[in-house]
Amino acid sequence: MPTNKTCHGFADAVSDIPDGASIMVGGFGGAGGLPFRLLTALRDHGARRLTIISNTAGVSMVTGFGWPKGEKPIDHSILFENGQVARFIGTYPVPGSVSLRNAFQAAFDRKEVALELVPQGTFVERIRAGGAGIPAFFTPTAAGTRLAEGKEVRTFDGRACVMERALRADFAFVRAAVADTLGNLMYVGSSRAFNPAMATAADITIAEVDRIVPPGKIDPERVGTPGVYVDRVVARSA
Amino acid sequence: MPTNKTCHGFADAVSDIPDGASIMVGGFGGAGGLPFRLLTALRDHGARRLTIISNTAGVSMVTGFGWPKGEKPIDHSILFENGQVARFIGTYPVPGSVSLRNAFQAAFDRKEVALELVPQGTFVERIRAGGAGIPAFFTPTAAGTRLAEGKEVRTFDGRACVMERALRADFAFVRAAVADTLGNLMYVGSSRAFNPAMATAADITIAEVDRIVPPGKIDPERVGTPGVYVDRVVARSA
Amino acid sequence: MSDPAPRLDRDLIAMRVAREFEDGFVVNLGIGIPTLCSNFVPEGVQVLYQSESGVLNYGPLAEEGRGSIDLINAGGQFVTPNPGMALFDSAEAFAMIRGGHIDVTVLGGLQVSRAGDLANWFLPSRGIGNVGGAMDLAAGARKVIVAMEHNDRTGNPKVVDQCTFPLTGARCVDLIVTDIAVIEVLPDERGLLLKEHAPGWSFEAVQKATGARLERSPSLAEFTFA
Amino acid sequence: MSDPAPRLDRDLIAMRVAREFEDGFVVNLGIGIPTLCSNFVPEGVQVLYQSESGVLNYGPLAEEGRGSIDLINAGGQFVTPNPGMALFDSAEAFAMIRGGHIDVTVLGGLQVSRAGDLANWFLPSRGIGNVGGAMDLAAGARKVIVAMEHNDRTGNPKVVDQCTFPLTGARCVDLIVTDIAVIEVLPDERGLLLKEHAPGWSFEAVQKATGARLERSPSLAEFTFA
Questions:
Q1: Does some domain include residue C5?
Q2: Are A96 and A118 contacting, i.e. CB atoms less than 8 angstroms apart?
Q3: Euclidean distance between the first and final Cα of chain A, in Å?
Q4: Is residue A21 included in any domain, yes or no?
Q5: Which of A99, A130, C8, D99 stands the most exposed, by the fewest C-beta atoms within 10 Å?
Q6: Which SS3 state, helix, strand or coil, does residue C136 take?
Q7: Could you list the residue range(s) of the whole structural domain that residue B141 is in?
């Protein structure tokens, strides 16, 4: 792995993503922690039949979730609108309000996209496991529900638990405040969310940051994702 | 749980530990991250037939591991010397050099103490699982070795993996640099080690810190163990 | 079937729920009525709010236009820091939830069964559901309180013998607070205990509005809020 | 059996191992000969050292009396920070190791078998072993190099047909570097390939000192250090 991971421009950062790739997208769902410049570059790049793995399938463009009033949200919806997604794995695909429809819902209704719904804690634990060399684990979450159907269930200490498998992707898009050229990432506030776990669980991890600094400029105590997990860093300010 | 978790004095902090208790002890093995004032208080308290869960069984008193030259190391050995331990679960029970004997080895040779040896990564993952509501997981580590004997083995993606169970304790002794009165802990450097995982996996977690500050004095970005996991904090400076 | 007296509004449901909070409790509030609970925490009780978004001990909502995109709750609202706040990632947020470190979660409900099964994530008429953190909270929180209307818009009971909607969790609910009743779910499927009813209501009136058999608490009383 | 020429010392073993490091590699060094490798990293190659103690990209050992108890490697030695260092807890340290994020680990060995099994944690004569992170490194690192003497103190071969000591990992070793040989463990139990021998040694002399059948590399040569 090169010791300078800086990538010049978002188009470059995503240029080798092939049709059929699986891509994790970080963030909780709002503006904070969402690598939307990478999403935009991927839309422009045009790769198709993608599997998108993310908490939401893009609800903020119709709800404003986690975006400041007055700003125009951008989210995963741009990929669904553009017909690039074949499969979505996540926890919160549609807006909370039944009266609002997002681009995922429209694509789903047209049967363009398959959905794998996962409880949020199981979702992030599967991703962490994917990065941590744990092929499978048991969790009490979802036992006795339809999200456990077809899965092995075993009782531990009197409690039914579901066996869940690790989740990995070809690419991860993560968002942090600052990167150094070695790929160390510093996060701010609740914008950590799924980013640190996803950074560990992809073959190629690409980080969208506000700025890139030389090694030594991020306090070692504040590194949220050690550089070993990160392949490319690209700055919004570049 | 009270909102002020300050405990006045180390003797107080350990006074309710009964005979037969299981106790996790944080740190990697050296002076950094080791709650040796709590160990000393436990020695003075005198509870017996303890299960000690820790990376080492106390090697620094005979090797100087992780202690500055000129300082006199204190470690788990004081409990083994005092005949308080019936069982040890850990990864590195004895000094690396065959020619050195620690108190654990002496107690083991006298058949006073049983040993459960666990690979270090499996050890911390079992503890994390114990705090995270994961009853069991699979790991490739130790497959095909004697440390996997008697354990379920299953193949995932062509690789033999061992099923490991979560590990919890009645008490955890952890060491951090600073605590606030809500129990938030801030760590420094490699003194994190096993402390953050252990803090999550005990019924009662007791943190030994340099100083206790009011809420708001620790940068929220620097909280290594959120206060929800911590029951008591006790300061060396008190 | 006509009601013997008015039903409580959402604020009063939230107010009654908040009486269950004890000093130092770590609380996770779902979206909807549960969110309102934070407005009614009793005097002298300090509650630490936890959110799936990776925050422990956040404060009130930020004033309009003053929030930060980097500090949201699980509903996507901008919140403010409390002194002693802690930030962490989603893996840690759910380790906390699933690991039993949350004292109370308050969730909305579509149905709760006699055994304490909860259905709250999937409305069959929509065809797609959001599960979010609900299943983890239902499985992991020490105490699960469901705050909801007692009946749906067409009058059907939401406290039922068996849930007909897909479950969020089996045997997970401890307490149900509705606009007419406070019902304890007795452990080991020993049934539902009516503990409080709204002013002007009676055991019989609440039973009539309910889809499962209720036991009468020996200390059955009107809702208390303080 | 007498040696045809001197054996290499520990520094030279470490120097040969360090030639396997490529620019940007993340490397975890075990205790003993492996630790010495950091002294011999080739010019122009930047290696990032990872330690089970929760550090990535630490620098040289601290000068006597100037170390901090809060910055140690897995051997308990005080190290110094490099620019771009990262700190984390043990759960993360081993997620990194087990998850395949370490390019190379260099471990000591008691025995390595023809199939690449490694035994290095348990000396039966002692009765107690330290396992530490060895099993996780053996299972998780992308490339496992064993650096050891070719024969034990009584002359018994340490490269053997089958390990008689308890295993650290099965089929995990990629490369063996000893004081007389560099041996590649071919995948899928296709045997051991002698690639280099110490100056003055021959294929036959190394084979004689070895407890398993060796294949001769077509490009068999003397040790190269630069």
A1: no
A2: no
A3: 22
A4: yes
A5: A99
A6: helix
A7: 10-235
When divided into structural domains, chain C yields a total of 1
Specify the residue for token string 């799936």.
C52
CATH number, residue D153: 3.40.1080.10
Beta bridge partners of B165: B136
Q: Does residue D149 fall inside a structural domain?
A: yes
Q: Quick one: pLDDT at residue A202? A: 98
- Tens-place pLDDT, residues D163-198: 999 999 999 999 999 999 999 999 999 999 999 999
Q: Which residue has the tokens 């309180």?
A: C145
Count of the separate structural domains present in chain A: 1
The Cβ of residue D220 has, within 10 Å, a number of other Cβ atoms equal to 17
Position C2 in a domain = no
Residue B4 lies in a domain: no
User: What pLDDT is stored for residue A238 in this prediction?
Assistant: 53
A173-209 in b/e burial notation, b at 16+ Cβ within 10 A?
A: bbbbbbbbbbbbbbbbbbbbbbbbbbbbbbebbbbbb
CA separation for the pair A128, A142 (Å, rounded)? 18
Sign for the pseudo-dihedral over CA of A58, A59, A60, A65: negative
For tokens 């099964």, what's the residue?
C117
Kindly state the average pLDDT of the residues A86-92: 98
A-C contacts at Cβ under 8 angstroms: 155
Contact between D15 and D40 (Cβ < 8 Å): yes
Q: Which of D20, D52, D184, D196 is catalytic?
A: D52
Q: Which domain holds residue C86?
A: 10-222
Complex confidence, ipTM: 0.97
Residues of B in contact with A135 (CB under 8 A): 138, 140, 156-157, 159, 161
The verdict on residue B2 lying in a domain is no
Q: Is residue C52 part of a domain?
A: yes
In this complex, the residue of B2, B216, B221 whose CB is nearest that of residue C84 is B216
Indicate yes or no: pTM above 0.95: yes
Q: How many residues does chain B have?
A: 238
Confidence class for position D117, pLDDT limits 50, 70, 90: very high
* Residue of C27, C96, C102 to mutate, testing the B interface (most B Cβ within 10 Å of its Cβ): C96
Residues of C identified as active-site: 52
Cite the DSSP H helix spans in D19-125.
33-36, 90-98
* Inside any domain, residue A1: no
D52 among known catalytic residues: yes
* Average pLDDT score over residue span A8-26: 97
* C226 band by pLDDT with thresholds 50, 70 and 90: low
